[in-house]
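OP here, attaching both records as promised.
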Amino acid sequence: MTCSEVQVDAPPALPTVVGVTGDVNSTAVGGSGPHVPSISGAAARSPLPLSPGAAYYAQAFGWPVVMAGDAVAAVCGTRLAAFTMPSGLGGEVNHLLKIHMLNAPVVELLTEAGRTLWVFLCEPRRSASPASSLTIHRVAHHGEGSTVLLPPTVGTTAGSPRWVDQPQFGMKVELPPWMSVFACIRRATLR
């Protein structure tokens, strides 16, 4: 798959779950970048009972979540969106966000190819900014109908997926604006 073939927003019928292993189909996130598995068919539409960790994400933060086997995934759309990128770029983006006093929940995932990805959660996209311009840097935007993998329990800081920057549990989580995260990604890719 080439950069021009990457979809910026996955269609609602086939949500993308970043980092789930097992019976999934792989799709590339730009060029020869890491493969991001996706859930399709009945598995994408069959809700499973929520684990305690998933139920906590839903109750404490109001995030829509689903189960994909044993994995917990947040459903992107009206409540949140996400950007996935290589960890090196993710470190720069996280630094830029903190300079601007913004905190994004960040999840680290290990791909089947052994690469490390960071997933930044943010508010949903409110503008028509071209997130597809970032695919050359192996950055993917996960919008309406996509799903992104979350750590299985609150406070998980080891293994994969794990929290790099976890939300402040027990407090209202304010996700950074989509445009702010996008702008920090653009700035980091221009360095």
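Record two, same layout:
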Amino acid sequence: MPLPFLTADRAPGADGDDLALPFDDHDQWRRPYRPGPWRVAAAAVALLVTAFMLLATLVVALAGDPAAAGTCAGAAAAVLLVALRLLRVGTWVSRHGVRRVRFLRTVTVPWSRVASMRTVQQPVRCMGLPRTVQGQALVLVRHGGTGEPMTLLTDHNADFLARVEAFDRAADTVEAWNAEYGSPTGPAAAVPAGRSHVRV
């Protein structure tokens, strides 16, 4: 007799990959999409390099050179931290706001300070490199118009390159969080739950 199975990311009969489970705690920071294959591949290569460096550390330690072994272990730890940070880069949401995690910097914006959030057509960086191409970006504008709009997602980063549908779902999900937890009296309340395409 076939039995339905409940997994960590899918309920029985659900077609979407990003559905929230009833016991999800919205106070916890979560990434509302799955890391893309390019990001996972880069982190996997870094972890593979870490494994070889730890093996070299063991060989050097057995050879009787503790100073060199310590240097190798430190270098392996640094590469491991790089791999873990690569996996954390992206946009995170919770009941408290939206957080943009970059490799060296993290910016958190409370929902009460979000004036608008929309998807626009604009030049975006391809895989984080200086070269830009025409693409889509989910941008956030803060109350008061202070500073440049913050780019939360692009369709050419390591998570969504050649994955337009995944980018659309992720943008819709972040906008839905803004619609649910944004200030009901501020400009954010005027932003619909769906995506708005604006050409600039």
